[in-house]
UniProtKB/TrEMBL annotation:
Coiled coil: none annotated. Keywords: DNA-binding. It comes from the Bacteria. Residues 8-62 form the HTH cro/C1-type domain. GO terms for molecular function: DNA binding; DNA-binding transcription factor activity. The keyword Chaperone does not apply. This is Transcriptional regulator, XRE family with cupin sensor. SUPFAM superfamilies: lambda repressor-like DNA-binding domains (SSF47413), RmlC-like cupins (SSF51182). Pfam families: Cupin_2, HTH_3. SMART domains: HTH_XRE. It comes from Lacicoccus alkaliphilus DSM 16010. One of its GO terms (cellular component) is cytosol. InterPro entries: Cro/C1-type_HTH, Cupin_2, Lambda_DNA-bd_dom_sf, RmlC-like_jellyroll, RmlC_Cupin_sf, TransReg_Diox_bact_type.
Length: 179
């Protein structure tokens, strides 16, 4: 699989778009997009989605599809991935079938790491497998311990943090699907 940064540049050039035009279409700066294409800057999922929309492609185009031949999911058999320059490791634990609306991930969040604040259509549910998580939803703080969960509309501004010295493992189920 080509790096996401190389794919962005290839799609942009195929469409004859300049970095300036991509910047106008996404609201992201030319310098940031240039750094992304060179693999020198971290790319959040929300920014990648803006780029995909501006290039008129689905965000899943940037990732190798993992088609399930049945509905059983064995996490130990799935190859984890990271978004470029991200310190969080994702393991996609969703089956891939037509009209699927949910996306499920096991996310390994290193100590002192956090997700990018966002708000969007849909809903999210998180279950803490290991560790302790702090969730911030519409400026309210929630502490979740192992075995606890949270479920909320994604239209609220939200993000999570791992303030501990240990890895945080969470199961994330969300709509709309990302990939």
């Amino acid at each position: 699989m080509k790096e996401v940064s190389e794919q962005i540049k290839a799609f942009r050039l195929q469409q004859g778009k300049t970095l300036k035009k991509l910047s106008e279409d996404t609201g992201l700066s030319v310098s940031f997009l240039s750094q992304v294409e060179r693999g020198e800057s971290s790319l959040a999922i929300t920014s990648l989605n803006k780029i995909a929309e501006a290039l008129d492609i689905h965000i899943k185009t940037f990732f190798e599809p993992e088609h399930a031949h049945d509905f059983k999911i064995v996490p130990s058999e799935i190859v984890p991935f990271k978004l470029e320059k991200s310190d969080q490791e994702l393991l996609r634990v969703s089956s891939d079938f037509e009209n699927r609306r949910l996306d499920s991930y096991i996310v390994k969040v290193p100590p002192k790491s956090q997700s990018e604040p966002s708000s969007h259509e849909g809903e999210e549910m998180y279950y803490v497998i290991e560790g302790e998580a702090k969730f911030y939803i519409d400026e309210k703080e929630y502490t979740l311990l192992k075995g606890e969960m949270i479920h909320y509309p994604s239209t609220y501004k939200h993000y999570y943090k791992n303030n501990s010295q240990e890895d945080l493992m969470i199961l994330c189920v969300l709509t709309p699907k990302l990939f």
